[in-house]
Amino acid sequence: MADKSGINLDVINLDIRGQICPACLLISLKEINKHKGLLRDGEANLIVKTDHRDATRTIPDAAIAMGYAVFVEKKKGYYEITVGRKDEDQKA
Amino acid sequence: MTNLYQIFFLNLALGLILGFVFHRSDLCMAGIFRDIFLLKRTFLLRILYLQVIVTMALFFIAKKGGLIGLYPPPNLNIASLGTLAGGMIFGIGMVLAGGCVIGTLYKMGSGSVISIIAFAGLIIGSAVFAEFYPFWAEFSKRTRVSEAVLLPQLINEHFIMLPILFISSMLIFRWMRSKKLHQKAYAEGYIHPWKVVIIIALLNLIIYISSDMPMAVSTGYAKIAAYLERILVPDHFETVAFFKKESYSVLHPDSKALIAGGPGAKFDHISSTEISLIVGVIFGSFISAISIGEFKLTLSALPPLRQNISALLGGILLALGSRMAGGCNVKFLMSGLPLLSIQAFLFLFGMLPGAWLGTYLFKKFVISYDKEG
Q1: Beta-carbon separation of B31 and A54 below 8 A
Q2: What are residue A49's DSSP bridge partners?
Q3: What is residue A23's predicted lDDT score, i.e. its pLDDT?
Q4: At what angle do helices B43-64 and B193-211 cross, to 10 degrees?
Q5: What ipTM was estimated for this complex?
């Protein structure tokens, strides 16, 4: 799970609601790569807002494969996917 | 069943179920093929294979049990190079539109504005095809590849069907044991794709038994185009040969009733089988989306312009491709492959490079994505 307790953690927001498939996944991957440094160091979390049901599967799949921790939460009418650093204890 | 209204309401009800389960699983046929090229992922391809094999087994058993009235079904035809070319155009279109002819419907039903644009493209594309239909019909006639519609008309069906079913069952059983038909999902009310394809196979069997034809959708779009043209440009409409033709016209062997349907602006067998499914899928998906609070018709935040253009062009190509091939992925992959239709194989062979090309174009022009980021 992504670190949600850190109050001083930066949040990078990405709203891709209403976008065409597979743009959701590709844009998210682009954003993950862009902020690779911050995400890997645990200095920021990326929060993706999507209303695409399939993206709640493809984005976590891809991010987990890249070594990130992912947390999916349903909001009002959309899903929020949080991508961040994996906790040290989970790595082991 | 030969009463068109009975068939209409039955298919409408089945369409509602179809739309509901499609929305819940977000099982997108365009995604199946796109992901092979985009993500090198074949999970969904296994799901499609499962669907083809289950459908094949059901159709085979039903035929042996004497439940199938028309074999080959009149909505499958003789394959030509037109089928191959159509498949390719269709493959490009489905990636650009972000969904196939049925994906567009269930996405639209859940409130996706971009799929409404793709739907409009599908209607426009059908009308465009109508203009060059005479030329294309001639081309297809000249490039026929075989006089048979289905492979079992050339080879004894037991020699071909039974080994396929046997070997595939072993393969599917192995996938089941190694959990290769299962994937992790986070969406609320998710229905796993393997369940959905079994449901679709059963619905398809009901459709084949009740309306003498397996599931198909895309001529329904052409019919909507015909109605619109008749209202908007009535003088021109009268001159279009495509809207006058019958796609099929056969006498049922038992009841001797005439089964006829085509893209024209009239209530016929296509209306009762395909228009009903179109309406059913849209509303089934709408009900599913509403019931879990995911209906979202947001006109305030439209997606980027390039994506809208992609959806419109994709929709047009979907319609052109399916009319050039004489059917879409629903008729060929969900119904044709299980019957070993030669048309279905040609359509698939065209669709694969088409989907590859569509993925390339999407990455290059629609979101300019490269792996290095």
Answers
A1: yes
A2: A15, A80
A3: 86
A4: 30
A5: 0.85
